[in-house]
Write a structure and sequence with these properties.
two-stranded antiparallel ribbon, alpha+beta, globular, binds zinc ion
């Protein structure tokens, strides 16, 4: 089970006294629910077209997109869903997320957090379809970060998302202190260091998912 957990930036922004940044602006997406729905829809639309045009195959949409609260999340295989997390589950091909946790990030960090976490999880759903072999978990995580960067830059280029100056920095900051609670997330080898994750996201952002 691949997961992303984002912490730290909340405290960072709080300490700086920043107001909630409103940046990754999808037209008409003004609430948390709108941003979550929009991030899912646009990310899947991107991959659908990418599979069709670049790979000549058909993208398989996720079977379910499940919000949960605390410990009430769906199991993945035998593993219970952790609070304060989002994850892709290959058993059942679904994505689930703690909506309270994600909304608090949205409130504290800005909507960029949603537009990093959701495309990252869809990156794992894509990996499952491409069946790439990875030697190490960290390679898979860094590729998912790269996919997230590539997805977002493509959506910005196409006009589906609007950005403001400083957005790239905000998105990169969203990857700081990110990790995996089921995978010893204090150990950088699980997800990569903050520097590795930012570099990977930035590579996708600048050069597109082909560079991932
Ligand atoms: Zn992940």
């Amino acid at each position: 089970m691949k997961r992303i957990l984002i912490i730290g930036l909340v405290l960072l922004l709080g300490a700086c006294g920043l107001a909630r940044p409103r940046s990754m602006d999808a037209r008409g997406a003004d609430s948390f629910e709108d941003d979550v729905r929009t991030a899912r829809t646009l990310t899947e639309e991107f991959w659908k077209q990418y599979f069709q045009r670049r790979l000549g195959t058909t993208y398989r949409p996720i079977a379910d997109f499940v919000p949960y609260s605390g410990k009430s999340g769906p199991k993945c295989g035998n593993e219970p869903a952790a609070p304060n997390n989002a994850f892709y589950c290959p058993v059942g091909h679904f994505i689930a997320y703690d909506q309270d946790w994600m909304e608090s990030l949205w409130n504290e960090m800005g909507d960029g957090s949603v537009y990093v976490i959701i495309p990252h999880e869809f990156g794992h759903a894509v990996q499952a379809q491409l069946q790439t072999d990875f030697q190490l978990n960290v390679q898979m995580e860094l590729q998912a970060d790269c996919y997230a960067g590539g997805t977002l830059s493509s959506l910005v280029s196409s006009g589906a998302l609007e950005t403001q100056p400083g957005d790239e920095d905000e998105l990169l900051l969203s990857l700081e202190a990110a990790g995996d609670p089921t995978d010893d997330w204090l150990n950088p080898s699980a997800h990569g260091t903050a520097e590795q994750r930012q570099a990977s996201f930035a590579a996708g952002w600048r050069s597109g998912v082909d560079a991932c």
